């Protein structure tokens, strides 16, 4: 299988998982059998391909466990390193969900 085709297949797999309900990157990683880093790198493409079909990838953002600061950026697919407010490194997982 060539690399481009393989990426496409992985993205389809991520979409299928999200079709079944909301999931965190950890959930997707476990269900799709790929690393969390790979899931983060595929999500922007999944987002685009959904948008092209008039659907939307909704994100309930990462938030700080300590002070509740929410990372509101819509494109925040990767887990943030630390909270800009209190510098805590423990984050509540973002939850991804397909809308529309
Ligand atoms: Zn914080």
CATH class equals Mainly Alpha
In percent, how much strand structure appears in the residues? 5-15%
Give a list of the ligands: zinc ion
Relative helix content: 40-55%
Order of helices and strands: HHHEEEE
Please, how many helices?
A: 3
| Count of structural domains | 1
State the assembly state of the protein chains: single chain
Q: Main β-sheet, in a few words?
A: 2 strands, antiparallel
Uncertain segments of ≥5 residues (pLDDT<50)? none
Radius of gyration: 14 Å
Question: What's the CATH topology name?
Answer: Arc Repressor Mutant, subunit A
What do these coordinates show?
The chain has 100 residues and is an alpha+beta fold. It has a single domain, classed as Arc Repressor Mutant, subunit A (Orthogonal Bundle). 42% of the residues lie in helices and 14% in strands. It contains three helices and four strands. The chain has helices at 3-19, 25-32, 36-52; strands at 56-60, 63-64, 91-92, 95-99. A two-stranded antiparallel sheet has the order 1-4. The protein has a two-stranded antiparallel ribbon with strand order 2-3. α1 crosses α3 (36-52) and α2 crosses α3. The mean pLDDT is 92. It binds zinc ion. Zinc ion (ZN) binds at residues 64, 66-67, 69, 83, 85-86, 88.
């Amino acid at each position: 299988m060539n690399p481009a085709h393989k990426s496409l297949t992985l993205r389809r797999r991520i979409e299928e998982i999200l079709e079944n309900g909301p999931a965190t990157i950890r959930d997707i990683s476990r269900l799709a059998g790929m690393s969390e880093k790979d899931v983060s790198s595929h999500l922007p493409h999944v987002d685009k391909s959904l948008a092209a079909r008039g659907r939307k990838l909704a994100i309930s953002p990462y938030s700080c466990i300590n002070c509740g600061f929410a990372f509101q950026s819509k494109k925040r697919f990767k887990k943030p390193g630390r909270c800009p407010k209190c510098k805590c490194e423990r984050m509540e997982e973002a939850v991804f969900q397909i809308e529309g």
